[in-house]
Amino acid sequence: MTVVAHILYLVGGFGALYFGAEWLVRGAARIASTMGISPVVVGLTLVALGTSAPELVVAIYSTLEGDGGLLMGNVLGSNLANIGLILGATALVSPLGVADRVVTRDIPIMLLITVFVFPLILDGAVDWGDGVILLVMLVVYVGFTFGTAEEEIRDIQEEVGSLTEKPEEVARDMLRSLGLAAAGAIGLAVGGKAIVVGATFVAEQMGLGTDKIGLTLVAVGTSLPELVTSIVAAVRHQPDLAVGNVVGSNIFNLTAVMGAAAMVEGYPVGESILSYQLPAVLALSLLVWPVAASARRVRRTEGFLLLVGCLGFMTWITLAN
Predict the structure, then answer these.
(1) Which residues contact 268 (CB under 8 A, 6 or more apart)?
(2) How far is CA 101 from CA 78, 112, 149, 151, 240, in A?
(3) Is the N or the C terminus of the chain less surrounded, counting Cβ atoms within 10 Å?
(4) How many other C-beta atoms are found inside a 10 Å radius of the C-beta of residue 228?
(5) HSE-up of 241 (CA within 13 Å, CB side)?
């Protein structure tokens, strides 16, 4: 396969992942609405999982190919990009409001899970048992979120409202919703495979490990749709959900993505992950806490700091041996 073909694979894969995740979440949300499922349930499950669907699909394909480096690089790189690129760039456009629950609940949970990953990967691998632990942590987090969801029902309804139509309209068109969800699932499957093929080729051509390509090129690519969406929301002066969504996505990446991939097949973890990548994610995550807690806003100067921090960490890790 030619160089151009591999590059097209990579670019096309990103597009397929974006539309696949979008269609799957919209179709599933409409079906849930027709079945009378609460918007809170949809918001805390389908929408949250949908933002991590590209990383999940890439992770499963990477596992099947025996490439734990690409998997871990993509997960950790996505978490860096979520904080640095999405929050940082969006705050530069418009300061971000931060809900109290994000500061007092979600960010501490994200930090605890990030720290917990360290001992989990010390043996150089993530196996089936580790996957079970990560998925149990995900269930506990989702359950805890449901238990404290009353205060955020309005925010979730606003977010899910854009994904659904009036129940009577959806009921008349259930077939279209099913087709949309199915098309989304196919898009995710095709896009994930294309990205693994293209990213592996790029890594070989550049003489880099797939973990570093996953941390940079693949991670940024899978985060671009969320970046564009967040910036558009900021331009329209509706950026309030950005911080909570990013933190939730990072939690899902560390638990659902890493855990589900390990349930498919265990995967190795390279020394670079433990020495450089995971510490970088923890450092930037720690920085978010005081930034978010300060006046419950992410200001432009703080957004610039997060953006520079993300790009600095990515450059440092890529150049590190």
Answers:
(1) 68, 69, 124, 125
(2) 23, 16, 10, 9, 13
(3) C
(4) 13
(5) 22
Whether 154 has a pLDDT exceeding 80, the answer reads no
How far is it, in rounded angstroms, from Cα 100 to Cα 148?
A: 12
Measure the CA–CA gap between 301 and 67, rounded to whole angstroms.
38
Closest by Cα among 289, 277, 283 to 318: 277
Instruction: Tell me the C-alpha distance between 307 and 127, whole Å.
Output: 33
Closest to 114 in 3D by CA, of 103, 104, 124, 106: 106
Residues 62, 200: Cα–Cα separation, whole Å = 10
Query: What pTM did the predictor assign?
Result: 0.79
Residue 232: pLDDT band (50, 70, 90) is: low
Dist CA 94 CA 239 (whole Å): 8
Sequential DSSP letters for 60-103 = HHHHHTT-HHHHHHHHHHHHHHIIIIIIHHHHHHSPEE--HHII
Closest of 77, 40, 75 to residue 56, by C-alpha: 75
In order of their start, the domains of the chain are 3-319 (1.20.1420.30)
